[in-house]
Backbone:
């Protein structure tokens, strides 16, 4: 009997990452997820995935602490070796992130560095360190944002880091082609989660404005995103490579 495919989802304990992890499990994929601080939420996601009949495990991970990456990769690969007899996995979903809402003129160097470490440098080097353990024929999915295509005042640092991720993804697709590893971007629009303090979900004016500039007439919800990420990890998506897929309901068309 063939072994299940395995996905590593960073930031998988809440919001979009949680939805991705559960949708991957629904596709018959085992899931390793990371969480920053809320172990209880992460354990709940693990239980939900196990109830779907898939294996799951959660590991603490600080996406902005690059020096900790070797230790985390070792923990994950040791766990996989104990569970499956092999250290490798198939899919890496770079989802972990935090929000930064600050006007360009008021963005501090400390704020910039924090966003840079989590959203670009961290993704770059986690992917680099994970690559020896990603099976040939695997997939890398980087999470960007609609804010890399359109500009909302207050997101200059965050949006530009996501733009960098989109360029990086094309380079990954090109350089990893010889190993048949596809790399793609999923770029959500504005989604109702607790991201950024629940900015989109809880602010009625913000939510109404987003609905007004979205062709499908509402803000997004996590269920709009997770299934797209899971699809990109299926055999049906094998020929999609180096692409940016915006999942925004048609924001700012």
Residues:
């Amino acid at each position: 009997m063939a072994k299940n495919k395995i996905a590593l989802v960073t930031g998988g304990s809440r919001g979009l990452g949680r939805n991705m992890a559960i949708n991957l499990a629904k596709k018959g994929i085992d899931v390793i997820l990371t969480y920053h601080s809320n172990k209880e939420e992460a354990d709940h996601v693990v239980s939900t995935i196990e109830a779907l009949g898939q294996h799951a495990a959660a590991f603490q991970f600080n996406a902005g602490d690059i020096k900790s990456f070797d230790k985390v990769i070792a923990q994950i690969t040791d766990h996989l070796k104990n569970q499956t007899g092999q250290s490798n996995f198939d899919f890496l979903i770079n989802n972990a992130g935090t929000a930064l809402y600050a006007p360009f003129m008021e963005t501090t160097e400390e704020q910039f560095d924090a966003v840079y470490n989590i959203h670009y440098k961290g993704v770059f080097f986690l992917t680099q360190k994970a690559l020896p353990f990603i099976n040939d024929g695997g997939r890398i999915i980087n999470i960007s944002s609609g804010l890399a295509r359109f500009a909302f005042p207050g997101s200059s640092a965050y949006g530009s880091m996501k733009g960098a991720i989109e360029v990086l993804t094309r380079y990954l697709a090109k350089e990893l082609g010889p190993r048949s590893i596809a790399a793609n971007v999923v770029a959500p629009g504005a989604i109702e989660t607790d991201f950024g303090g629940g900015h989109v979900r809880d602010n009625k004016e913000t939510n109404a404005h987003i609905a007004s500039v979205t062709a499908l007439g509402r803000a997004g919800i996590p269920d709009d995103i997770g299934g797209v990420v899971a699809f990109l990890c299926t055999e049906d998506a094998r020929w999609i490579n180096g692409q940016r897929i915006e999942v925004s309901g048609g924001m700012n068309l």
About this structure: Residues 109-130 form the longest helix (22 residues). The chain has a mean pLDDT of 95. The radius of gyration is 17 Å. The chain has eight helices and seven strands.
